Amino acid sequence: MALDSPTLVSDLWYDDGNIVLQAESSLFRVFLGVLAAHSPIFNDIQKLPRSQDQEMHDDCPLMVLHDTAEDLANFLRAVYNSGFFEPPPSVTDFDTLAGILRLSTKYDIPYLRRRALRHLDIIAYTPSTLQDYDARESKQIIGNSLGFCIADLAREMDLPWLLPMVLYTCSLSFKGIVTGYVYKGKRRWMNKAQQVVCIEAIQRLMKHHRKVILRFLYWREVDGCKSPARCNEARLAVLEGCASYAPPESNPLGPFSGIFGQFVGKNFCKTCYIASRDAHLAAREALWKALPGLFGLPSWKDLKTLREQALTES
């Protein structure tokens, strides 16, 4: 497809290259043999006889690829420049690793795919336990817009082990699910199937929040409580306050040390405070265990196995 005003990507335009790749309106002149050495897809292309009607550009065969120019540029830089996309702990950004992940998967370059997955594993870190989640929450929170991007990439690339935590993060932003989100100045919309999954999960989270997380606030008799009437009155006050503070606005996995701990510590006796804290932790543990299932995903154990296989497969 001839272009009226093509853009030559200067750092990926080798004067002695023997093939020109086109993605959107960008052109890349590279060495087919280098690509063929890494990718069986390009190796098969290299073996094809040149047809008489082969379109040419600068005396080189022109191959049109149905990839974005940004993805192809990052992918080619990773192939031709060994310092461009180094393994962790070297740092990269989401858009770069996403493009390399897509095309290393499409063109079957396993070492690049594993490298991209390891970078993504850091950016979209999924805690393996509730304790890891609590330690992570204060240090490494995925921003809402990036969370939506990761969710769609994980679905596109079939990376289910990333989805429980990232979809949970997305589910805390109902507006972002329904009306879209802004990423790097542009409004984007979540994959439709993911939208449905998140909306259905929000309903399940609300039910779990009401029936399990807040159960410690229901009227109860606690052995050793010296002022049951006062403590139960305080429970009712907290429960009424929680009526307008439920998913997706709240964080059901949030620790007791937040708003609950502050109010309960002031208004409950010590015995009821300890009982409430322990009951709340047990409820959070139950939600953590159930989290993958809320999004229609396998168990944490199965997801861990899939993750390990993807990051280590040869």
How would you describe this protein?
With 314 residues, the protein is an alpha/beta fold. Among the domains are: 7-122, Potassium Channel Kv1.1, Chain A, CATH 3.30.710; 208-292, no CATH class. Helix content is 55%, strand content 10%. It has helices spanning 32-38, 40-47, 69-80, 94-106, 110-123, 130-137, 144-156, 163-171, 174-179, 192-211, 228-242, 259-267, 270-294, 300-312; strands spanning 7-13, 19-23, 26-30, 56-57, 60-65, 181-183, 186-188. Helix 1 (32-38) crosses helix 2 (40-47), helix 8 (163-171) crosses helix 10 (192-211) and helix 8 packs across helix 13. It is elongated. The model has no long low-confidence stretch (mean pLDDT 90). This is BTB domain-containing protein.
Strands, count? 7
Uncertain runs: none
Rg for CA atoms = 26 Å
CATH superfamily of the domain at 7-122: Potassium Channel Kv1.1, Chain A
The level of helicity is 40-55%
Average of the residue pLDDT scores = 90
Name the shape in a single word.
elongated
Output the CATH topology of the domain at 7-122: Potassium Channel Kv1.1, Chain A
Strand arrangement within the widest β-sheet reads 1-3-2-5-4
The CATH architecture designation of the domain at 7-122 is 2-Layer Sandwich
The CATH class name of the domain at 7-122 reads: Alpha Beta
Helix/strand-derived category reads alpha/beta
Q: Termini separation (Å)?
A: 37 Å
Biggest pleated-sheet summary? 5 strands, mixed
